[in-house]
Amino acid sequence: MRGTADSSQFIEKALTFWLNYSLSKQVKGMNKLYRQKWLIAFALPGFLFFLVFSYFPMYGIVISFQDFDVFKGVFRSDFVGFDNFKTLFDMPDFNNALRNTILISALKLILLFPATVVFALLINEISTGWFRKFVQTTSYLPYFVSWVIAAGIWYKLLSIDGGVVNDLLVSLGILKEPFHFMADKDAFYPIILFTEAWKNMGFSAIIFIASLSAIDVQQYEAAKMDGANRFRQIWHISLPGIKNTIVLMFILNASNLLRAGQDQMWTMSNVTVQQQAEILDTLVLRYLKDMGLMGYSIGTAMGIFQAFIGLVLFIVCNYLAKAAKSDSIL
Questions:
Q1: What is the pLDDT of residue 26?
Q2: How large is the angle between the packed helices 296-323 and 280-291, nearest 10 degrees?
Q3: Is the residue at 73 inside a domain?
Q4: Which of 92, 85, 103, 89 has the alpha carbon at shortest distance from 260?
Q5: Which domain holds residue 189?
Q6: Count of the separate structural domains present in the chain
Q7: Do residue 220 and residue 292 come from a single domain?
Q8: Both 241 and 110 in a single domain?
Q9: How many whole angstroms separate alpha carbon 182 and alpha carbon 190?
């Protein structure tokens, strides 16, 4: 009997302790949430945005496995398995579009990504405050111009009929007659890279400039006292200070290898250079124009294909970053 009473008292004390501990943790948790109420309030709109526009629409993934009919809806359309992916891969221009997509994205990653880092370093080295703000502001303003307007601007600038670039080159004697830049297959990729840099480099450099501003100024002062010039300061202080940011941004950019810029390629291309300008996104867009509402399944299948390859590239690049003992995302 005594043993039974001792066991009951032990169980009672254990339950009392557990209840008190749970209540204290809940109270502490509520107090912590209350202290962070403004942070939560600011984060809530962003959370709801991604929830509504990124997570809820994911049920539409099933469209890629259906013969989707907008009148039947997602739940009543016929299931066709992987037929849409087979149709996608059997498209006559798919291989050409895939090659162009990888080539353009790789060129942007190899050439423009390092150029963006160098541009941020150069802006960081400008000592005159007003001039630095002027350069930074003018460099990221084109980002807010849509590609439709940007393409119209560059078509006009490079036009053979009154284009500023052709008029200048002819007047300087570099060209004997106006050159049709936008219709030349060899000039198309350089124009794409240049216009991409003109439009997006300034805005993309902001994150690197922000990382550079977080470096302790005393490091530069100590380096000056040791006789280090500007280049040495950049190499030994600035670059190591933003190394993790460079790695993270490289991983994110590399995971978008199958997204070469639909807006840019759609607006900057024309019939003459369509063979070089056709990418996966524009290929599906042309297919959708021909198929109308019945082409949603192919478009969704393309999105799944791009997302899957992007996920694989993301994991591989993240693993390589970890293997190199650098920062990573996962």
A1: 62
A2: 170
A3: no
A4: 103
A5: 88-323
A6: 2
A7: yes
A8: yes
A9: 11
Tell me which residue has tokens 């043993």. Answer: 3
Residue 260 near residue 105 (C-beta atoms within 8 A): yes
Q: Tell me if 329 is assigned to some domain.
A: no
Helix ranges restricted to H, the chain: 2-35, 37-50, 83-89, 94-107, 113-125, 129-140, 147-157, 164-171, 185-204, 206-213, 217-225, 230-233, 239-241, 243-254, 262-268, 274-277, 280-291, 296-323
For residue range 171-229, what is the model confidence (pLDDT) as tens digits?
888 888 888 898 888 999 999 999 999 999 999 999 999 999 888 888 888 888 888 88
Q: From residue 293, how far is each of 109, 175, 287 by CA, in Å?
A: 35, 48, 11
* Euclidean distance between the first and the last CA atom of the chain, given in angstroms as a whole number: 57
pLDDT digits (tens, 9 = 90+) for 217-232: 888 888 888 888 888 9
pLDDT beyond 80 at 290 = no
Residue pair 97/283 in contact (Cβ under 8 Å)? The answer is yes
Q: Name, in order, each residue with C-beta under 8 angstroms of 313's C-beta and a sequence gap of 6 or more.
A: 254, 255, 257
Q: Are residues 16 and 110 both part of a single domain?
A: no
- Give the pLDDT confidence score for residue 7 in this predicted structure: 57
17 found inside a domain: yes
pTM above 0.70, yes or no: yes
Residue 6: pLDDT band (50, 70, 90) is: low
Kindly state whether residue 161 falls inside one of the protein's structural domains: yes
CATH code, domain carrying 134: 1.10.3720.10
Name the H helices within 214-279: 217-225, 230-233, 239-241, 243-254, 262-268, 274-277
Query: Which residue is listed with tokens 């849409």?
Result: 84
Burial call 196-220: b when 16+ CB within 10 Å, e when fewer: bbbbbbbebbbbbbebbeeeeeeeb
Tokens of 285: 């867009």
Is pLDDT above 90 for 121?
yes
Q: Write the pLDDT tens digit of every residue in 125-183.
A: 888 888 888 988 899 899 999 999 999 999 999 998 888 998 999 988 888 888 889 88
Q: Say yes or no: 92 and 23 in one domain.
A: no
